[in-house]
Amino acid sequence: MKQEIKDIIKEKTKHIGFIVDGNGRWAKSRNLPRSVGHDHGFKALEKIVKSCFYDFNIQIVSAYVFSTENWNRPKAEVDHLMKLFRKYLKIDWNKKYPNVKFNMIGSYDRLPQDMIEAIENLKEKTKNNWPYIYNVALNYGGHDEILNAVNNILKSGAKSVTKEEFESYLRTKNQPPLDILIRTSGEQRVSNFMLWQLAYAELFFTKTYWPDFTVKELGDILVEFINKDRRFGKIKEDGEAK
């Protein structure tokens, strides 16, 4: 991809989100255990996130890796995912993701204590990293995040808040909203992901299972995105609805 296109992507894209869907179906299509699909999904996640930061210079990446509803999956699958998360949290972060700040945007409720400690340690270790932010949505639900913000506002004694004040109670405090949301595997829904932050995001749904999602497909989506006319409800001078 030409550098001038990458420069436009950097200018127009500050925050990208991924719903990493289809690991289990990827495995099933190959007659493999679902756990193998999750293993390959984690490898794809690392590759795509690093490309967002270091190839396309996108400042913020948010990845939906485990929802509040995913606890309803078979125990063996949940246990395997937790094992992968533990391993991921213990990587040499500053070597794997230089200049990236780790941010957990899920709830600690139901997470094992050792994982909570690992998350807190990683947040502390990377808190001064700049200019990139990696939001990991682990045990995350959009409803949960919004309700948590409302309850904290009530605890503060505030009678009313502005949009900007409300956003300061979200787990993406001081971050811009999503510009792009990509969901793999052919499903066309947002599944309770960053409901406030995606209000004006451009949504892209691809039939590719997450383990097969490539940097090239990401680049094609980014090029399509920068060619869109994002209007935000405004009106053009010639009177056309924007």
How would you characterize the overall build of this protein?
The chain has one domain (3-226): Undecaprenyl pyrophosphate synthetase (3-Layer(aba) Sandwich). Helix content is 42%, strand content 14%. The protein is globular, with a radius of gyration of 18 Å. Helix 6 links the parallel strand 3 and strand 4 (132-140). The protein has a 6-stranded parallel β-sheet with strand order 3-4-2-1-5-6, sandwiched between helices. It has helices at residues 3-12, 23-28, 34-54, 75-89, 93-96, 113-126, 142-156, 163-167, 215-226, and strands at residues 15-19, 60-67, 100-104, 132-140, 180-183, 202-205. Helix 1 (3-12) packs across helix 9 and helix 3 packs parallel to helix 4. By secondary structure, the protein is an alpha/beta fold.
Main beta sheet: strand number and arrangement? 6 strands, parallel
Contiguous low-pLDDT stretches (5 residues minimum) are: none
Estimated structural class: alpha/beta
Strand order of the largest sheet: 3-4-2-1-5-6
The CATH superfamily label reads: Decaprenyl diphosphate synthase-like
In N-to-C order, the SSE pattern is HEHHEHHEHEHHEEH
The Cα radius of gyration reads 18 Å
**Assigned CATH architecture:** 3-Layer(aba) Sandwich
